[in-house]
Design brief:
EC 1.-.-.-, TIM Barrel
Length: 340
């Protein structure tokens, strides 16, 4: 059994074939797709966060809106770039969105990926400390967030407050109990996966990772997951961690599917540089008739290791088509693999 959800990058563009011409289109359709996914029986609605781009940015208004319109589906991010975040303010926003949703928030955070502008986090007012990289800054922001989400008081109260305070030191409010255990780290390397395990974060692994050894993508990702679980056990955490992987998977069941994705059937892993120093391996797209997909996915080692599968969706094709994409997997593929 696996939790199966979708991951949307929330693109919009004013082009003839796009169903999302504006930011408003993308936001409102994201809510509608989450509602539709819940009705289908999917388990999660997740959204990528990018800045300075025609994609979804600030996630918490969207997550809160989805939380108010749904009742069961998990709501999350994959991922929030912590280079851009004030962890105190983020804890407030996340606490509020989690309470609105009834404790269904699953927040994926990370260092982030190359962005649309150079050092965009500087425009947000952040600068790494002397001797630190922007990645170090992201990890430090994350550590502060994790500490704050524990709900322990740390701020000295005003002796003459406008409103009465509870006794002792004060914490960030609103606090949502249990959210601390629903933070995920988007790891691109085995080392950062182990680091996340040491801090008690769940693991979120995407369709690309650092190329560490030259093996096929799914084999490297499976090794990363095992390294994460080993580090988790060594850290002595009492609860079980969760692990998600994302994939582009399309079951070809009608002429639309074949027109959009039929040519991706011969897709394979590819390797490239995501910056001047990082060589990455990118996972293939799966696109085939359902019976062929079942055989292909059964051989994906990383999917077998994970408890959660996030399906990347082509959000610019609209809510109706993406609902069809999810239904295809839930109906024609997942049961045959024992995921349902």
């Amino acid at each position: 059994m696996k939790r199966i959800g979708f991951l949307s990058f929330g693109h919009w563009s004013d082009t003839p074939h796009s169903q999302t011409r504006t930011a408003s289109d993308t936001l409102l359709q994201s809510i509608d797709l989450a509602v539709a996914a819940e009705e289908l029986g999917a388990d999660g609605a997740y959204f990528r966060v990018h800045h300075f781009a025609r994609q979804l940015g600030s996630p918490f208004p969207l997550l809160a809106a989805i939380g108010a319109k749904t009742s069961r589906i998990e709501i999350g991010t994959g991922v929030i770039d912590m280079r851009y975040e004030n962890p105190m303010y983020m804890a407030e926003d996340a606490g509020a969105a989690d309470l609105i949703s009834g404790g269904r928030l699953q927040l994926g955070v990370s260092r982030g990926s190359p962005e649309q502008v150079i050092d965009g986090w500087r425009y947000f007012g952040y600068e790494p400390s002397e001797g630190d990289s922007d990645g170090d800054m992201a990890r430090k922001h994350t550590e502060v967030l994790l500490t704050v989400l524990r709900g322990k008081g740390f701020a000295q109260p005003n002796p003459s407050p406008m409103f009465a305070n509870p006794p002792g030191l004060l914490r960030v409010e609103p606090h949502s109990e249990g959210l601390r255990e629903r933070i995920w780290w988007g790891a691109s390397s085995n080392a950062t996966a182990a680091w996340a395990a040491g801090l008690g974060m769940n693991l979120m692994s995407s369709t690309l990772k650092n190329d560490e050894g030259g093996a096929p993508f799914h084999v490297q990702q499976a090794a990363q997951i095992r390294a994460f679980r080993e580090a988790w056990a060594e850290a002595g955490w009492e609860h079980e961690p969760r692990v998600s992987v994302s994939r582009s998977i399309f079951a070809l069941t009608d002429d639309r599917d074949r027109a959009y994705f039929g040519r991706d059937g011969d897709s394979s892993d590819h390797v490239g540089n995501i910056d001047a120093t990082t060589r990455a391996i990118f996972g293939r797209t799966y696109a085939a008739e359902p019976d062929v997909l079942v055989k292909q996915l059964a051989g994906d080692e990383a999917i077998q290791e994970a408890d959660t599968l996030l399906l990347t969706v082509p959000n610019q094709l609209g809510v109706a088509y993406n609902t069809h994409v999810l239904d295809n997997i839930l109906t024609h593929v997942a049961p045959a693999l024992g995921w349902r």
